[in-house]
Amino acid sequence: MSDAALPHPTPAEAPRATEGWLKRALASDLFYSFRRSKLTVVAAVVTLLFFLLAIFAPLLSPQNPFDPAQLQLLNSRISPLWTADGQSPFLLGTDEQGRDVLSAILYGLRISLLVGILGVVFSGALGIGLGLIAGYFGGRVDTVIMRIADVQLTFPPILIALLVNGVAKSVSGNHLEWLSMLAVLVLAIGLSFWVQYARTVRSSVLVEKNKDYVAAAQLIGLPAPVIMLRHVLPNTTGPVLVIATINLALAIITEATLSFLGSGMPETMPSLGTLIRIGNNYLFAGEWWIVAFPGLALAGLILSINLLGDWLRDALNPKLR
Known about the structure:
Belongs to the binding-protein-dependent transport system permease family. Residues 109-309 form the ABC transmembrane type-1 domain. The protein has 13 helices and no strands. The protein has helices at 13-26, 29-36, 38-55, 57-60, 101-137, 139-153, 157-171, 178-208, 212-219, 224-232, 237-260, 272-280, 289-315. The two termini are 44 Å apart. The model is unreliable at 1-6 (pLDDT under 50).
């Protein structure tokens, strides 16, 4: 059939198609479940707020805490603005380097979210790919991949992340630029959380590959990668979305833990975990705000993402409908 015979949407029909998709989304059971849960709505708003603060940090921050030219040691350890010793424009005070704590939190939030999102994408791609291969082909391939996954499950994720981080630092001579350190953290987190994706996708593939649509695709000669990616993978998206949402919080916590232990982002490009580690050194000296506000920001971010993950798990569970 030639291209001339194929119907093409006119410019007037495109907005109608978008409007129809939006109406279907608003009328779906998933959105109805989301609307009914006030706690989930609040969690979604808080999560969105954190993302917006991270995106627009350069516009909202009084200073760029990553730029040494904007820092002055004379402004170090200033208490929050509402206290007796507070000074404008340092709403949440400053740290030992004269960095505005609010600006450091906004920029640190960008680092934490970037590491968390990239770590989830990497671990998801690795786990989904291995899960599809193991479930679809079975046999020795399935056995090898699943035994590797079983062995990794015996080690805590933070231990694997520390191991990957230590190997990378030993290879580089303990001299890593902040961008290289970012890549190492993403690699460490990705290698720590791929097992959940692989096991979940493998279980779904074992069910889906015996259905008629897969047999029909095989009958017409579609190659295995096309069948796995185009036909089998879309039927496993529900559980994968739940795992990805929960793992985003776990990835951020893992990065914060590594940074708190001194194996994460450097002090010149601090994440929330690095800010908490820096502030912890001055907690007993009375400068509580240096550690308290980054800690509250991290706790609020993790809590809101976890609440969204819990709701999504329940909303996509057919047994609870």
